[in-house]
Design the sequence.
């Protein structure tokens, strides 16, 4: 290399410190996301062991205590330990992810696969159904469903699951269509492979990645929204320690006993952040442009 | 000898990836004279595109550009080092002094603006003038490019035009301010061969009219033969041969060039029993370049003990003709 | 001797997005003998890819008849096409898109064997796959690897191995080398030619690169806007083309020879829309020899030499013999 060679950075761009900074952040945000998600999962499993108190145990003499060593997150208006309640609330959050996200995934995939594979009139009907679902504001739709079925945690999760179905349906249908147009599927057809074989061996394995990314990113949203429904009293009913219900409990006390609403809120925030970071990292990993 | 219009010295472009640093262009030297056509011939991984993007200052992070100098004589006669200019100054150079056109006109043109709007934007950025004047200039440019009914075509969107027309629109944008150097990166590769013939003809005509120098990047030797004054062959990031067009086609001393010329099927070629003399092997992995000469694993002239140990320097082998081969004296087409 | 493939009046129309019919292929007829290579050459909009896909019955023709070994496969439903599918296989252009990224090389090449029940057990199938790998010049350890670990040229070899797995009689190769680096193209062309000669494969070789098609084909068919312009032995077409479009195509090919001094025929204008093609001869709008009569009727394929036909009403067009220099 010539002695007079000069390093002029990345060709006039705003400053080459941003690139390494961005790279570091990217590596660390994935780790942070994984850490948060793991902590969340540990909480759900170990809640009964980790919680110092029974979350339903009332003790009016210690009502509205601020955070202390005994009650890490303070107590609510009935003297229940907030730390234990938040810990146990993680279980309903996990349940929400499994049921709501799971339902959306299953239903959406079925619709997307049917529409993408069969095509024609069936596809048109499926897509219009999806459009109808999308057109409703999520809250309105959830309200309608819950109104029909009655307010409970299970029903609110079903409602959220239905509300999120269109996203999955569209994603999977898009994947099916684009994969079916690929040359390797055409090669399989040319060899005489059956539609079933094509679906199982070619389409599904290649459709999976974006679905995983979506499921991870949606997990966070699902937690927020079931909490939202619980907050409105349409989901988990008292005395359930569901985080949304805790927010509902705490909001009227916010100015005097800030801890009742704050810690559940923080918990929701951290879990959603964790899933989003992991989802983003996965999306980058699966980015087809990164194929080696 | 007249001072060159563009002189690139010691250009190195590298990209930092998760697998390490990949050097796309390695210590490249080349120059282009006024009104001259330099064709850079290379395959994928040769570094030809990275080199031209570096000249234009269009390499972004994670790419890194290092060089001794990129000297360019602008229209006012001043010699400037492009590698040391700030972005704002480079923007004034791009379009007005040096223009670039790319392979895929569909993705290089903004689909939501008409081609007229895009050409006018290019014009008014460098030469403030009234909308009407700019439109007039754009129309002139389209007519010069052989676009029928230019006034109406100005209001067409890219998707309404054929591939050849889009390429002309892109050339129109590039040339609207009469730059002294046009860098064309595989502009005809994605076009039909009859359209390619039209566009090549067009570029030649425009060159004569505007006195423009052209750096034309291609992997097609036929195209090179048609339009080049000088040719630079690149392989694995290095310049491996450089010289006048005829000298390279008639008297190359580089095994790679010979291999390329022989392995490309030509019309009317005698299809005797012998297969096409193909170059064996694959392009080297930029992260694991061979020791010594980068081409030696695929070279039929390679001498063990020499070519696999020593990296060949660029040597002169004729009038203005250089070659990067240790055995060039023994190599004949 | 009856032809392996006999195509008559093949037509394929598509409905365009905003109404109107795209006439992608219009009244194309040709025959292909066993072991013969027919090159389909044309630019964008010529219909050559559509013809390939229709022959393979990946899409249905709008009209026309396809006979394979004398049997009419034009309207056969999917179930009954399986026997045909064993006889005709494709090779595609894009080395990245033509292999399932989630399947190992072994799985990719074994799939055709499984679909057609070839090989009694896994060991037999594997032996077959290994033999195929050797035929296409890939190492044995490729079995367990995945497409992304191979280069473009190597991926095309995998595609070729897959196509040969069922021992077909006909290969439809759609631009098999266009997406490859120049130095690799020759390798794959050689491989295809070698395999074609050794296995006596009939081939429909579709490409836009005239020189490549000429090199590998016995006969050539020149297409423009869905119609046949000229068809005949490859040598004759190149040495003495009879259709103005063929002449323009030949003339447009850049020659790696800086001393080529000939005047090139540069076609005026753009490709007409396939939704609204010109009346009569579809090429007349860009033809330097067009007459008013050309607009009246679609020219028939007229005999202009041994096995050589051109769809042009003029007989007086001077043939550009420049290519003879290289013969």
Sequence:
């Amino acid at each position: 290399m010539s002695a007079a060679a000069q390093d002029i950075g990345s060709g006039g761009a705003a400053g080459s410190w941003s690139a390494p900074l961005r790279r570091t952040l990217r590596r660390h945000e994935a780790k942070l996301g994984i850490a948060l998600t793991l902590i969340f999962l540990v909480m759900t499993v170990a809640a009964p062991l980790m919680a110092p108190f029974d979350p339903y145990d009332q003790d009016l003499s210690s009502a509205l205590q601020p955070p202390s060593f005994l009650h890490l997150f303070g107590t609510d208006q009935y003297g229940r330990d907030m730390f234990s309640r938040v810990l146990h609330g993680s279980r309903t959050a996990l349940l929400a992810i499994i049921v709501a996200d799971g339902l959306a995934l299953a239903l959406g995939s079925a619709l997307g696969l049917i529409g993408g594979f069969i095509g024609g009139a069936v596809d048109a009907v499926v897509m219009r159904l999806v459009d109808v679902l999308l057109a409703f504001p999520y809250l309105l739709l959830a309200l309608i469903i819950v109104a029909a079925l009655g307010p409970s945690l299970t029903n609110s999760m079903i409602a959220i699951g239905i509300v999120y179905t269109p996203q999955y349906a569209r994603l999977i249908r898009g994947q099916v269509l684009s994969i079916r147009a690929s040359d390797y599927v055409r090669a399989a057809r040319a060899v005489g492979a059956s539609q079933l074989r094509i679906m199982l061996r070619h389409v599904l394995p290649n459709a999976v990645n974006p679905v995983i990314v979506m499921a991870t990113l949606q997990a966070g949203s699902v937690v927020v929204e079931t909490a939202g429904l619980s907050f409105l009293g349409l989901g988990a009913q008292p005395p359930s320690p569901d985080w949304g219900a805790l927010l509902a409990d705490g909001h009227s006390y916010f100015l005097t006993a800030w801890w009742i609403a704050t810690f559940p809120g923080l918990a929701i925030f951290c879990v959603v952040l964790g899933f989003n970071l992991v989802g983003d990292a996965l999306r980058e990993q699966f980015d087809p442009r990164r194929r080696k | 000898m007249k001072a060159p219009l563009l002189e690139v010295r010691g250009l190195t472009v590298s990209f930092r990836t998760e697998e390490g640093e990949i050097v796309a262009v390695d210590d490249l030297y080349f120059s282009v004279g006024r009104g001259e056509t330099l064709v850079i011939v290379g395959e994928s991984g040769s570094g030809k595109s990275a080199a031209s993007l570096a000249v234009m200052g269009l390499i972004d992070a994670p790419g890194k550009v290092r060089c001794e100098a990129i000297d360019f004589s602008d229209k006012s006669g001043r010699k400037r080092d492009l590698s040391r200019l700030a972005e704002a100054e480079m923007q004034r150079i791009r379009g007005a002094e040096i223009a670039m056109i790319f392979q895929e006109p569909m993705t290089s043109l903004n689909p939501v603006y008409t081609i007229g709007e895009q050409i006018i934007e290019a014009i008014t950025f460098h030469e403030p003038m009234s909308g009407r004047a700019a439109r007039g200039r754009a129309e002139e440019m389209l007519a010069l490019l052989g676009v029928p009914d230019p006034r109406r075509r100005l209001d067409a969107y890219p998707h309404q035009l054929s591939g050849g027309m889009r390429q002309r629109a892109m050339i129109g944008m590039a040339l609207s301010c009469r730059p002294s150097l046009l860098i064309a990166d595989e502009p005809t590769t994605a076009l039909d061969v009859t359209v390619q013939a039209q566009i090549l003809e067009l570029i030649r005509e425009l060159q004569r009219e505007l006195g423009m120098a052209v750096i034309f990047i291609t992997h097609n030797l036929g195209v090179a033969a048609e339009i080049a004054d000088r040719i630079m062959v690149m392989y694995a990031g290095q310049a491996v041969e450089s010289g006048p067009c005829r000298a390279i086609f008639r008297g190359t001393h580089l095994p790679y060039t010979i291999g390329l010329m022989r392995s490309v099927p030509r019309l009317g070629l005698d299809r005797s029993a012998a297969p096409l003399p193909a170059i064996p092997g694959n392009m080297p992995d930029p992260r694991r370049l061979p020791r010594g000469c980068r081409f030696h694993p695929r070279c039929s002239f390679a001498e063990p003990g020499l070519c696999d140990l020593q990296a060949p320097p660029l040597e002169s082998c004729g009038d203005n003709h250089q070659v990067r081969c240790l055995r060039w004296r023994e190599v004949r087409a | 001797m009856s032809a392996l493939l006999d195509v008559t009046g093949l037509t394929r129309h598509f409905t365009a997005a905003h109404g109107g019919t795209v006439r992608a292929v219009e009244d194309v007829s040709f025959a292909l003998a066993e072991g013969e290579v027919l090159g389909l050459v044309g630019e964008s909009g010529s219909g050559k890819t559509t013809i390939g896909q229709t022959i393979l019955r990946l899409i249905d023709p709008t009209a026309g008849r396809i006979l394979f070994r004398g049997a009419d496969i034009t309207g056969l439903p999917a179930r009954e096409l399986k026997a045909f599918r064993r006889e005709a296989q494709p090779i595609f252009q894009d080395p990245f898109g033509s292999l399932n990224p989630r399947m190992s090389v072994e799985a990719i090449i074994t799939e055709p064997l499984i679909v057609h029940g070839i090989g009694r057990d896994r060991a037999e199938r594997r032996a077959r796959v290994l033999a195929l790998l050797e035929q296409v010049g890939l190492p044995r350890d490729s079995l367990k690897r995945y497409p992304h670990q191979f280069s473009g040229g190597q991926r095309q070899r995998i595609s070729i191995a897959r196509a040969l797995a069922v021992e077909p009689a006909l290969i439809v190769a759609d631009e098999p080398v266009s997406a490859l680096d120049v130095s690799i193209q020759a390798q794959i062309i050689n491989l295809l030619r070698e395999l074609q000669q050794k296995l006596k494969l009939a081939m429909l070789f579709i490409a836009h690169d005239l020189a490549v098609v000429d090199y590998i084909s016995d006969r050539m068919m020149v297409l423009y806007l869905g119609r046949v312009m000229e068809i005949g032995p490859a040598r004759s077409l190149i040495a003495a083309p009879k259709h103005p479009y063929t002449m323009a195509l030949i003339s447009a090919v850049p020659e790696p020879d800086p001393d080529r001094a000939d005047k090139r025929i540069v076609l005026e204008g753009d490709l007409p829309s396939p939704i609204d093609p010109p009346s009569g001869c579809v090429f007349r709008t860009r033809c330097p020899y067009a007459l008013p009569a050309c607009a009246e009727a679609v020219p028939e394929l007229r005999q202009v030499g041994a096995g050589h036909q051109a769809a042009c009403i003029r007989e007086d067009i001077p043939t550009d013999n420049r290519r003879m220099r290289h013969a």
Notes: Residues 1-16 of chain A have pLDDT under 50 and may be disordered.
